[in-house]
Amino acid sequence: MTVNTGVKGTLAKLLATEDLIIEHKQCETASFDVKRRVLTLPQWEKATEQVYDLLVAHEVGHALYTPADWNADQFKCPQSYVNVTEDARIEKMMKRRYQGLPKTFYRGYRDLDAQDFFQASDAYKLNLIDRINLHFKIGNFRNIPFSSEEQVFVDETGNAETFQEACDVALKIFKYMKETLEEQQTQEVPVSKGAPTGGGQGEMIPSDEKSDAPVDQEKFQEDVNPEADIDNPSFEQGQPEPTDDQQANGQEGSDAPDPLESITDQQFQDAVKDLVENTYDSEYIQIPTVDTTKLVVGWEKLVNHSESYWAGCDTDHEKEELDKSVVEYNEFIKKSQKEINYLIKEFECRKAADSYARSLTSKTGVLNTTVLHQYKYNDDIFKRVTVVPDGKNHGMIFLLDWSGSMSNCLFDTAKQVLQLAHFCRKINIPFRCYGFTYAWNAFYNQESPQDERFVPNYGDISFSNGFCLVEMLSSEAKKKKDFDRSCLTFWRNVASNCSDRGHWYGRHYGFNHAPGLGLSGTPLIEAISAMHSVIPQFKKETGAQKVSLSVLTDGESGPASYFCERNGLFSGRLFENTYGRRCQLRDRKLGKIYQKEDNPSYQVNIFLQNLKERFPEVTTIGFRLVNARDAAGYLRQLAYMNALKRVDIAHAKFRKDKFVEITESEYDVLYVMPTNTLEDSESIDVEDGAEIKEIRAAFKKLYKGKGSNKKMLSSLSKTIA
Questions:
Q1: Distance (Å, rounded) from C-alpha 42 to C-alpha 272?
Q2: Which three-class secondary structure string do you get for 125-154?
Q3: Is the C or the N end of the chain the one with fewer CB within 10 Å?
């Protein structure tokens, strides 16, 4: 059976009525950590749904009612006796607490009895403690016999309310069984003087042999076959009495069970272990809340750091290139005003339409004099008013992939981000743009060592591998002068990281990016995880109620890491391990556990899903940049992940419109577009002496691109609004 461990974990938390940590692991028995409040449950993959629910309720009962500090050494009887009486007590307490559980226990034990879980085909041959165990577990389906003397212990077991009372009745049962067994063993049949013994110690003489005293044949049979007394069955019929050595060892033989132990309790424990599949053990991973000041490099620090570095550029060529970057940036912003204004218009229209759709018409207490004459046959004579709800405050966060694979398309992508930043600034939408990277802390490791930034905790996603968010743009740059400085700094750092073979050393400009701003890996999972801390802080600082999170990337996330323990020499120390197929993301606040995934691209979907469920007010927008020749492959990958229904239709739209909008992925909206879609060409690319048809084709190409861009901007404004 495939078990939804998340659902069963939620069931356990509901039964426990507290925020327990529920872990399903590859273990044989359940356990409860009192300090961490962690209830570890085996993965009973072979159990039916009813049996699984029974076992969960049973273990929760132990977590709630069985003292965690008990010690088996404190019992003056075998632990199995306490197991039996305590099981009966905690199940009674759970049934009393939840009215629906009696049915759960009934159905679960019915399934177990049908499977002969206890191997109790003949209850008459079992000792008292085993019959008591069966009575409280499968007594609804089996006729378990008890003498009037034994019924007293059954009643005491059922009436136990505390753990101590359960221990006391277990001790009473043990003493009774021990005394009974000793009486049976001392009631030996007298042997005739000088009679042969047959050479075997402990062998009983035949009933027709002479003896000094008369032998009661009925009593003799009871002594030889103690199991004949159904009120106290102890041995299998036909077995001889144990020898002195066997009695001393408490066993009839090396392979025979102890007559004073609970056979059914051990059988139950062993059978429950057999329900566990031999699968990979699970590692439960959670996203920690971190101090954003240690995670984020602020825009002011970035601007001051970059300007200070470029101020040291002393060659004429570098100075010329720096001046050139200012001119080109200003030209780009001037050309972008049409797109920015178009996006503003679309956004305001969408916002107004949404407000009108949510408007309500209600009556007032003021008479409408125009219909007052209708009062005899119409009660609706009051004026009406249309109430338009206030729109929510918007906010936008951009996550920009600062990885090496973005070098060919980073410049065009950054231009789009700059347009969106100017759009947000014009209509007073607070925003942040973060580049997610390893490069900054790799360069400034001496300034901000990873061991000092974050305190590692067991099972936490690791942010200590040099990961950080560099705040490229921010609405916190209130003054136009500061905003322009940050935009120009962003422009320069982007352009000097891009591959552009027509310029100096393959970069767009003849100067280097600021130290620590080189392109690195793709820590997308860490970036999404960091939003759990960034978004609440962003909302607190800006008052934003509705947040749009845009992720701009050209590839898959690199593997994430988490903190774990190692055994052996380094036991107790935390190490970073790769998030893989054994890992399950757990959200304690939601009470949900997400499925295992080995592929990092699938793992991103899990983290996105968790983010959306944790923050339902956040709209997630994905921009996936692909080479035109790779588009079909990526669309097929989306279809494989059930994020796309028709690859052929999507690919046709991609080729026609230069983008395709996908709404079936984990993003609320995912835009798949070629890497050159965001180019902002204003010129017509024709050679001197071109024919009219070539000029016409160039015009069509230019305005087709403009039309595609407007389509995407229109769709984007709808999503944001």
A1: 9
A2: HCCHHHHHHHHHHHCCCCCCCCCHHHHHHH
A3: N
